[in-house]
Amino acid sequence: MDFWDLTKLLIRRWYIAGPLLLLTVAATALAAVKIEPNYVATSYVQLVPPSVTPKEDDRRTPRPRNPWLDLGLASLGKAAILTVQDQKVVEALKEAGYTDSFTLTLDQALPIVSFEVIAPTRDQATATTQELVRRFGESVTALQADYGAAAEQTITTLRLTVGENVTESTSKVKRALVAIAGLGVLLTTALTVLLDAMIRRRRGRHAAATGAGPGHDSPPADPPVNQRSAWADRNSAQSGVDDRAVALEPVPADATVIVPRTEWPPPGTGGNHR
Questions:
Q1: pLDDT at 183
Q2: What is the tally of structural domains in the chain?
Q3: Does 233 map to a domain?
Q4: Nearest Cα residue to 257 out of 232, 227, 236
Q5: Residue 45 and residue 71: Cα distance in Å, rounded?
Q6: Who is most buried in 63, 197, 221, 234, counting CB within 10 A?
Q7: How far apart are CA 8 and CA 196, in angstroms?
Q8: Who contacts 165 (Cβ-Cβ below 8 Å, separation ≥6)?
Q9: Residues 204-225, buried b or exposed e (16+ Cβ, 10 A)?
Q10: Is the pTM of this model over 0.85?
């Protein structure tokens, strides 16, 4: 069954497919009203190296040095991101009422970390962003403090966004509407095909039972087909009359068929006759 046959079936069984399609439309409209959109909050934090370069000690006494300066700002940013995205931290945020749907991404060219938070409400998205930025700054400071880095060698964080960049996202609503509409169409098609097959089977059984039941005469047999002789076919071909338009009577079995002699070549062609 191709698409055109399926369409004709749905049109023929409109009393089945129609209510199901109306129910699908109603469910889709209800979902569009009831499902709330998500809110996406975006923020950016930059890693800033120390502004003062430590002077070399003439006495050459060992002094603690910040190893993250040698590794680079990107290494420190990546390490801080891993600590914030730790599973225990995510569970703690969720228990505290924050959303656990967030992403921290380090820029490939610049030491800038982007925060993207998705939450069902605007307030939750804003609060989660603030908490993540705070935890990221604390992680950057703690990673440097573990090596005893001096204050003048400490890498700091700077939040670039002044306000909260919160936008409304309807992707969840669109996905839900597409899923509900698609499921409704599939169920409508499947139920229509199933009920059509059941109706056909029931009618077939009823017709079979009616034809074989008592009190019903069997249908008349087809009349026998008239048998034509070879002479009749040849005669009609020579006379130029369409044999399909001439109704001949059946030739009896004991009848004598006289076939006229055909001269060759035909008269008037200039050939010799024998």
A1: 92
A2: 2
A3: no
A4: 232
A5: 19
A6: 234
A7: 12
A8: 41, 42, 43
A9: eeeeeeeeeeeeeeeeeeeeee
A10: no
Query: Which of 20-34, 80-94, 178-192, 237-251 shows the lowest mean pLDDT across its residues?
Result: 237-251
Residues 43, 163 within the same domain: yes
At 161 the three-state DSSP class reads coil
Residues 20, 192: contact at Cβ < 8 Å? yes
Q: Indicate if the pLDDT at residue 96 is higher than 80.
A: yes
φ/ψ of 253, rounded to 5, equals: -70, -30
The residues, ordered by sequence, that sit 6+ positions from 258 with a Cβ below 8 Å of its Cβ are 231
Distance CA 147, CA 65 (A): 8
In DSSP notation, 13-53 reads THHHHHHHHHHHHHHHHHHHHHSPPEEEEEEEEEEE--SSP
Strands 38-48 and 156-159: antiparallel
- For residue 66, tell me if it sits in a domain: yes
45, 136 Cβ separation under 8 angstroms? yes
Tally Cβ neighbours within 10 Å of residue 144: 20
What distance in Å separates the CA atoms of residue 267 and residue 222, rounded to the nearest whole number?
46
- Strand 38-48 with 165-169, pairing: antiparallel
- Tell me what the mean pLDDT of segment 138-148 comes to: 90
Position 209 in a domain: no
Backbone CA torsion sign across 107, 137, 75, 81: negative
> Would you tell me how many other CB atoms lie within 10 Å of the CB of residue 83?
15
User: In this structure, what CATH number is given to the domain that contains residue 96?
Assistant: 3.30.70.1130
